[in-house]
Amino acid sequence: MATEKINLGLKSEQRKGVALLLNGLLADEYVLYTKTRNFHWNVTGPHFHDLHRFFEAQYEEIDGLIDVIAERVRAAGETPLASLAEFLKATRLKESKASHTANEMIAALLADHESMIRQMRKDLDTAKDKYGDAGNQDMITGWMEQHEKMAWMLRAMLG
To answer: How many angstroms separate the Cα of 133 from the Cα of each of 16, 72, 82, 138?
Structure first.
């Protein structure tokens, strides 16, 4: 995509900056998606069926976020991260192995959602104040709200 022909009311530097911010979120979402899918496959115990379905619903919601964020990067005239190596280099989250109890899985996902919510609060200000991008600020607000709901559900499961 020829970035010099894009006229969204943002300068090239602003679009590049917000795309970098969005790629960081994209990497975090992809790592969280992978972790949630991992736990979906590997959960065991008396609540297996409920947790298996619950994790599936959450990774499907995250998958939708991944697609939208990548498309926002493209709309800014930039290229979204697309390889596992790129995601792991850019993420602020940690990968996780499957060997956890169900409660440890829930707690790990809750910690990641809360971490992402805190990061998104910072990104809201950066998108608007540094890059003048109210559109992506609004999108980040919506994504943050989705993570707040997922975090609330995980928190409720822990009791």
So the answer is: 11, 12, 23, 9
The string of DSSP codes covering 20-72 is HHHHHHHHHHHHHHHHHHHHHHH--STTHHHHHHHHHHHHHHHHHHHHHHHHH
DSSP 93-158: S----S---HHHHHHHHHHHHHHHHHHHHHHHHIIIIIT--HHHHHHHHHHHHHHHHHHHHHHHHH
Task: Name the average pLDDT for the chain.
Answer: 93
Q: What digits encode the pLDDT tens for the residues 16-49?
A: 999 999 999 999 999 999 999 999 999 999 999 9
Q: Tell me the per-residue pLDDT of 46-57, one tens digit each, with 9 for 90 and over.
A: 999 999 999 999
Buried b (16+ CB within 10 A) or exposed e, 21-38: bbbbbbbbbbbbbbbbbb
Largest CA distance in the chain: 57
Q: How far apart are CA 128 and CA 91, in angstroms?
A: 22
